[in-house]
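User: I'll paste a sequence; please echo it back and then give the predicted structure.

Assistant: Echoing your sequence first, then the prediction.
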Amino acid sequence: MRVTAAIITLNEAGNIRAACESVGWADEILVVDSESTDDTREIALDCGARVLVHPWAGFSGQKQIAVDNAQHDWIFSLDADERVSPELQSAIAAVRQQPADQLAAGYRVARRAFYMNRWIRGGGWYPDYQLRLFNRARGHWRHRVIHESVVMEEGARVETLRGDLRHYSMPDPEYHKRMIEERYAPLGAEQMLRDGKRTSALQSAVAGPAAFIRSFVLKGGFRDGRAGFTIARMAAYHASLKHSLLSKLQTGEPSAPSP
């Protein structure tokens, strides 16, 4: 099994070196960069990556471009703010030693977030399984504007690897809030509209409180203390804002453009 580690980037100079180093075991590192204006490409090249520059095609589109341009059929997809843990690396190494006829078509991994100086256990943030190692002959990135995922062909066997994919996406609550306002809520509302979903005044009113209870109580966010409370509060803000934006979209009112 020869593997291409595929990473998409936009102005990730602060992250790309560590990301590349965490997949140094791969046979190829391919970085698809959407016209960064910082040193992302130069750092990636210095790390031994092959760099392809392509205008932004959306999250799923950009990741599929990486899949299509990889040198090898087996793809390990990594975001620039993610790192492969030693245990996960060992699990992948074990898979690569298996005979071809014993391999699954794809492998999912648990993703663990580092937030407010601690590893998060609850709130719906863990284990947050992601299908990241797959044979491109049997899977592809599903087209969505947000929360993109790999779709495998019907009947394809998918297994779970031990070890975590470490996620460093939110340096602080202020950044978290900004990402909700600039990316997650607008794109989430757009995706809901595309999926034929609609909202109402009642749904908009209850979405926030319901999201808080789901995150903090039902999904165990209370186990993470202040960080868990903050995650639940942000989940409530996200849900409320998303429904508000969806309401505007479905009535044709102008809203802030998606990034």
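The chain has two domains: 3-167, 173-251. The first helix runs from residue 16 to 22.
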